Amino acid sequence: MLWGNRNWGPYLNDALREAEEKGYRQLIAVATSAYSSYSSCRQYREDFADALEDTRLQGVVRIDKVRQFFDHPGFVTPFIEGTRDGIRDVIAHFEAEGAPVDLATDVEILFSTHSIPSSDASRSGPAERGFDEDGAYAAQHLAVAEVVMHEVTKELGIDQDVPWQLVYQSRSGPPSMPWLEPDVNDAIGELPRRAAEPS
C-alpha cells in the first residue's frame, strides 16, 4: 500500500516515485471522499494525471480510481449503528427520568456533512441522471440518511417517523458565494423554536 495526498505530504508524486521503485505498474487509488463532487472525484483524476506527467511515468504506471463508495454497506453500517445507539441512549435517558419519550417531537437527527459551493454541487454527478439543483453530492447524502433512518427505525421497532434533516458544515469562501445549506449551526439554533411550535 502506498499513501499519496493532494494537499499534504507525502504527495502523489512521492507515492508514484515509490511505486516505480517497487516495480508497481498498476495502482488502484482509493480517494477518502465517499460522495460525488468535483473535488472528491474528477479533481483526483486530474491530480493523478498531473502526478504521472510530473514524474514522467505516463505509460509506465497506470492508476485506476475506485468508484465513490457512499452506498457501500461497510461505509453505511457504522452510521446505522451510531444512530441506533444514540436513539437508544435518548430513550434510556427519558426512561431513567420517568418521562415518556415521543420520538416524533422530542428528537431530531441531524446528518452533517461538508458543505460545498452550490455551483459545484449542481455539477456533481452525471446530468442525465436527473439530479436536482444540488446534484449527486446532496442526493447521495440524502439517500444514505434515508437508508440509515429506515434501518434504525426497523431495528428498534419504532412505528413513528423520527424527524431528521441533512445539514452542512465547514463553509468557507467569500460570503457572496452560495454554499449548500442549511448550516449546522443555523439548524441547531432553530431546534428550540421548532420544538416550541404546536404540532
Give a description of the structure.
With 199 residues, the chain is mainly α. It has two domains: 12-65, no CATH class; 73-196, Rossmann fold, CATH 3.40.50. 48% of the residues lie in helices and 10% in strands. The protein has helices at residues 12-22, 38-54, 73-96, 103-106, 118-122, 135-156, 184-196; strands spanning 26-29, 62-65, 109-114, 164-169. It has a two-stranded parallel sheet with strand order 1-2. Helix 2 (38-54) links the parallel strand 1 and strand 2. The longest helix has 24 residues, at 73-96. The chain is elongated and about 70 Å long. The N and C termini lie far apart (54 Å). 20% of the residues are buried.
Task: Chart the SSEs and their pairings.
Blueprint: H1 12-22, E1 26-29, H2 38-54, E2 62-65, H3 73-96, H4 103-106, E3 109-114, H5 118-122, H6 135-156, E4 164-169, H7 184-196
Parallel strand pairs: 1-2, 3-4
Helix pairs in contact: 3-6
Family: Belongs to the ferrochelatase family.
GO molecular function: ferrochelatase activity
Protein name: Ferrochelatase
Summarize the structure.
This protein is mainly alpha-helical and 199 residues long. The chain contains seven helices and four strands; from the N terminus they run H-E-H-E-H-H-E-H-H-E-H.
